[in-house]
Design goal:
This protein is an alpha/beta fold. Among the domains are: 52-151 and 227-332, P-loop containing nucleotide triphosphate hydrolases (Rossmann fold), CATH 3.40.50; 152-225, Arc Repressor Mutant, subunit A, CATH 1.10.10.160; 365-427 and 664-774 and 785-802, 3-Layer(aba) Sandwich (Rossmann fold), CATH 3.40.50; 826-880, Thrombin, subunit H (Beta Barrel). It has a seven-stranded parallel β-sheet with strand order 13-14-12-15-16-11-19. Helix 10 runs parallel beside helix 12 (268-278), helix 15 (336-346) runs antiparallel to helix 29 (707-721) and helix 18 (436-449) packs across helix 23. The termini are far apart.
Amino acid sequence: MGWAPVSEDGGTLGCEMTSLFDLPAHPTAGPDRPVPVAAPAPDASVLLEGLNPQQRAAVEHRGAPLLVVAGAGSGKTRVLTRRIAWLLAAGARPGEILAITFTNKAAGEMKERVADLVGPRARAMWVSTFHSMCVRILRAEAAELGMRSGFTIYDAADSQRLVQMVASDLDIDTKKTSAKALANQISTLKNELIDPDVALDRADSDLAKMVAQVYESYQSRLRAANAFDFDDLIMQTVDLLQRFPAVAEHYRRRFRHVLVDEYQDTNHAQYMLVRELVGPPDDEGGVPPAELVVVGDADQSIYAFRGATIRNIVEFERDYPNARTILLEQNYRSTQNILSAANAVIARNPQRRAKNLWTAEGAGSQVIGWVADSEYDEARFVAGEIDRLVDGGDARFGDVAIFYRTNGASRAIEDVFVRSGMPYRIVGGVRFYERKEVRDGLAYLRAVANPDDEVSLRRILNTPRRGIGDRAEAQVAVFAEQERITFAQALERVSDIPGLVPRSVNAISGFTGLMAGLRQLVADGGDPADLMSAVLERTGYRAELEESSDPQDGSRLENLQQLVTVLRETTESVIAAQQAAAEALEADASQAAAESAVGEATPSVPPDPNAPVPTGGIDDSAVADPAAERDDADIGAAAAGTEDLPLLAAVLEQVSLVADADQVPDSTEGVVTLMTLHTAKGLEFPVVFVTGWEDGVFPHMRALADETELAEERRLAYVGITRARQRLYLTRAVNRSAWGQPSSNPPSRFLEDIPPQVIDWQRVVEVQPYVERGGAYESLFAGNRPGYAGGGRGGRSSPVTASRFGDRIPPRVGGSGTRGSALGKAPLELAVGDRVSHDKYGLGTVKVVEGVGLRATATIDFGTAGTVRLMLIGGVPMVKL
């Protein structure tokens, strides 16, 4: 990656930039700017201050692989940062340390915290996300894979667009099998490290064969565009390390200490990547495995839908037989009542490592429970409690978060908040970089940076409209395929394309001239923000929005203006990072030179005599590697690759790698934060409301008959509860709209697990639901369900309030058949071979029926809509034919 201002003679000045976070070799030293002096290594004893015994053991551990099972709020970030600082104090060089996190924000915070402990030399470490690290390696080694180092990174929307192109070329009906579904199937294959050839060999159905065929063509188109998608970043890096032993050996010698955060969220490809970087335990080549430390908590593994596998952490000790495990159970975030609720909920999960969170901070307030009549009553209670806390000085709006199981559950909360004037922000809606106008602007920049980027080129070819229709675009694509040239090259040869009308030829020629002018602007030294401004002016995009009578176009123009600001700020941060990293590397090189002048420096922490790997990582006498003997200032050149990456590409890379979790607002913004439970992972708030505690809502309907999915739902509950620091509210509604009809669900089974002494049910509801005599639902609302009158484990402290619904809930009839709520109708009874009609999926045939009563499910083949397993609980929008 390169910082490349243009010199007077047209060449480039500057340096190579090796990653999003460490951008070394900036030419900062000179006659007027001496090489900065490295900060002295910190006193090792200081690094252990304030750590509990388990944290200290994790920091000081040497040798064998280490698994740190870090319960929620147990200080895992402190352990990771102190361990890195400890390694540096013990003699390890920054370039020998690789720390992997899951978000850019977490990586930046970790590096800053280490810098506070050891000084600016920490900036020379590799601390990044999986994807950022892989981009860095692929930039350096792109030639090995037949790619150029200036490749483009496609996000999910770009991938889907390319899949749509491929499907059209293959005459696949994307109305039956959508491009999104095909892209998801390809993503799953890549996460399992399955290439197109293997996918085709394993295909056991027409759909699988079609996916493999699309996959093969999709990969060819990616390569032609000099692009990788997000899944490729990891898959191709694993392939690189497996196919090229010399490359793998280089990185294994380089990285002597590998630390992985949130290990429970790794998928198979990420798992294999870590194994390849650490190296096998008995490498005949003489490179001992790196010291591996993984930190995680199986109880917080909630991303199975993204391919994460809990096996990676559960079976860590099987994969590394000599591994040591350290358990962190002392919590520094929440009160004991909150922790007791979390412990009780997660304890019911089978086959989990026993762990019991505790705190020295006291019991704190009881958890508050509330049963509302409807989702709107639930939202009004939440709004009222927030107002009460804020008015009483017990919280600020920015201290409060509201969690829900699915995005759709925010609707009632938003309605109430808007009417009451409650300041709020939703995390996880349409994000800034996903808005059409922002994607259009970035597509122009990407097409300037990489002319072979067909997806970006075709997106902007007629945006804004310039008279190039779909037919003309298709003719260009056919010509490119016939001539075996890229789409961009076909545009340049537009006059050679047979059958293209003069109007289209002129329009395309104008477009290619526009792009040439934009590239010249970059060559003349224009930065990305200047380029974006030029795009808006020269294309007429700004004028079109300004002249539009659509009120939405005003906000679109504001978004593009914000994009220019973002690009300017990102450019400044990239250059600043280059300078800071260069200073850190030069300082570390200066220190290394000083040490070598007086002999081998004595480490501030003596190595463990029983550890197989000494404090410096590897013994240079045992492993003679010229690369390992170079000082850390050489890391940039060693990792950057042979091509300088221009500033524009560097900025686009940083934009591409922004993660969802990095979009979460800081609590100082003074607004209430709304988000799904999945988005809440890794965050904490003084006040937390978790809504929708009903079977069928949370846990989700699809999990009720599947023990594996139910276990993940329970982990999701554990994550939600442990986000709260001081106050926790658990709410549910007796009636909630579903499929456009009111439906009633029983209280969440998770509520039964919470000890009554830690929860105060401030409102409960007495309900005598309508059920058919002897029906399967008579037992649902017995007195042992939390939040209902009639005794049991509710732990309530206020009088019972009778529901206005009383016992007058009739079955609901409408549409093409009877559609009952969960209370108004017994489960649908089906048998194998039955025909059914579902409101969403259409006509289907029952293939498998399992379970009885509440846990009855049916697997149904809905033809083009696919095969779906459904709960047969009352209220399912389906009728038997």
